[in-house]
Write a structure and sequence with these properties.
Helix content is 50%, strand content 7%. With 161 residues, the protein is mostly helical.
Length: 161
């Protein structure tokens, strides 16, 4: 499937299904992140040992862990989940999908709290894996403290706002 076919299918087709089944799934929020192919990023990553970037990400939000479990365990949630999974097989490489439960930790936010203007703001999404020689606790401490401090320290030079 070409990018010209994939992104509209993901946004309109799958997005509509998610909206239709949001109540059954207990979703508070659903966000799609679509990759923007840019030569500048390709040039930057060319010398890196980075993996090929993914085409998109879906963020599924619930009020709490308990509300997620309740919704997904319900008959309506199970049926909705099955419908969405069938649809995903039509336009994604399901053997290469991964996901995890997460909680955001804002390291830097110099915005006024307003969402960025539609179509103007962009973000870089970087998927990371901990080094195998680090425990989860060691990785988390390093990522949340030392690395976060470095990002804050160099945010202006990196153009992060």
């Amino acid at each position: 499937m070409s990018e010209g076919e994939f992104y509209p299918r993901y946004l309109q087709g799958h997005g509509s299904l998610v909206r239709n089944h949001a109540r059954a799934m207990g979703f508070l929020r659903y966000v799609q992140t679509h990759r923007i192919a840019l030569p500048q990023i390709d040039n930057f990553t060319a010398g890196q040992t980075w993996r090929t970037p993914l085409d998109g990400q879906s963020e599924l939000w619930w009020d709490s862990w308990e509300s997620m479990e309740r919704a997904l365990a319900s008959p309506e949630g199970g049926e909705a989940s099955a419908i969405l999974e069938v649809d995903e097989r039509e336009f994604t490489e399901t053997s290469n999908v991964s996901g995890f439960v997460a909680q955001e930790e804002v390291v830097l936010d110099i915005s006024d709290g307003s969402p960025p203007g539609f179509g103007t703001a962009v973000k870089i999404v970087i998927d990371i894996w901990k080094r195998p020689d680090l425990s989860t606790a060691e990785f988390s401490a390093r990522w949340r403290a030392q690395h976060a401090d470095l990002v804050r320290q160099h945010a202006a030079a990196l153009g992060i706002c």
